[in-house]
Specification:
alpha+beta, binds flavin mononucleotide, seven-stranded antiparallel sheet, single chain
């Protein structure tokens, strides 16, 4: 072992990382926030946590509504992930701009996204400030899958085993090689 700066250590373990979109709606506004930072946190009840910076518009929408949807993008949504992940819903309608179809959810107000491989409806069950991000813990209250989910989108590095899809603005996207 050698002692290194954190950035050098992160280069070893940080990628690949599956991407999920946090979708939230409040006060007639909605947005989509692609996230790398998420984890399962409970089996019963089923829960997942996401880490969202307070500067994100989606952070305000989740904090205001107490709900969010986790939508899992497939390989055809790399460009949409890049755009939604580099621009704010404060300034644009990401659904209209990226031609994404909002479907009504069963329990929460935030919409499902028809083009995604799976959608999880979540109610905020806990919240923790973690440095410069907020961890929202969501209880999963309904789950949906696409008729043909396909391969899920990942943020990748240079490792083998992944099929490269798109590189833009410092982000590289790919899927697990079939
Ligand atoms: C691949 C990728 C992963 C990202 N992961 C996170 C994350 O885990 N947490 C976070 O707060 N922002 C993350 N972002 C940045 C947000 O998606 C981005 O700031 C987005 O434009 C916020 O949109 P909003 O202001 O409409 O909520 C990520 C962006 C990309 C492209």
């Amino acid at each position: 072992m050698k002692n290194v700066p954190l950035s050098e250590a992160r280069a070893v373990f940080a990628r690949p990382e599956r991407i999920v979109w946090a979708v939230a709606e409040h006060g007639g506004r909605r947005s989509i926030c692609p996230l790398g930072w998420k984890m399962n946190t409970s089996i019963t009840p089923p829960m997942m946590a996401i880490s969202v910076a307070p500067a994100r518009f989606t952070h305000d929408l989740i904090a205001g509504s107490g709900e969010f949807v986790l939508a899992w993008p497939g390989e055809d949504l790399a460009e949409a992930t890049y755009v939604c992940g580099t621009r704010s819903g404060r300034d644009m309608d990401k659904f209209a701009q990226m031609k994404l179809t909002a479907l009504p959810a069963q329990v929460v107000k935030a919409p499902l996204i028809a083009e995604c491989a799976a959608n999880l409806e979540c109610r905020v069950a806990g919240r923790l400030t973690s440095g410069d991000h907020t961890i929202f813990v969501g209880e999963i209250v309904a789950a949906w899958v696409h008729e043909s989910p396909g391969r899920l989108l990942c943020s990748i590095g240079r490792e083998s085993g992944y099929e490269f899809l798109l590189q833009k603005g410092g982000y590289r996207f790919g899927v697990i090689r079939a």
